[in-house]
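Whiteboard transcription, Tuesday session. T.W. wrote the structure tokens on the left side:
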């Protein structure tokens, strides 16, 4: 889990955000939660707290468990979660920060592939045993 405070260090004040308060990101190819981003607006302070967390691999929590489900699906590219808008009343400058993330999309072997690999190892073990027994 990574947590970061986004400061308005140039004197701005929080105005709005397009990031949902909780953004759920689905695993590629399955409706399971892979990652999450919490965007917590400031409580009077000129900062915003962003918390990015990654689910266990392989993910086990279905997107439908939470209201609204998963809003994005990870695809390995840099994806935009949304924006945060700040306004500096002294200078009249509005600044928009774009929040982006990139998730890994490493393939998890299917159970059938693991069973096939296991069967190959068993076959090789039997073959080696028989060939060594025949040699004695």
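and on the right, the sequence the group agreed on:
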């Amino acid at each position: 889990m990574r947590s970061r405070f986004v400061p308005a260090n140039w004197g701005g004040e929080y105005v709005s955000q397009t990031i949902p308060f909780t953004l759920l990101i689905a695993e590629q190819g399955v409706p399971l939660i892979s990652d999450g981003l919490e965007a917590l607006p400031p409580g009077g302070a000129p900062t915003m707290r962003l918390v990015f967390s990654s689910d266990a691999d392989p993910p086990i929590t279905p997107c439908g468990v939470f209201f609204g489900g998963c809003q994005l699906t990870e695809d390995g590219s840099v994806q935009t979660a949304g924006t945060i808008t700040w306004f500096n009343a002294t200078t009249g400058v509005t600044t928009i920060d774009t929040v982006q993330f990139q998730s890994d999309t490493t393939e998890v072997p299917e159970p059938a592939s693991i069973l096939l690999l296991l069967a190959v190892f068993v076959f090789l073990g039997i073959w080696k045993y028989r060939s060594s027994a025949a040699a004695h």
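Someone added at the bottom: The beta strands are 2-7, 13-17, 22-26, 33-40, 47-54, 72-73, 78-88, 93-102.
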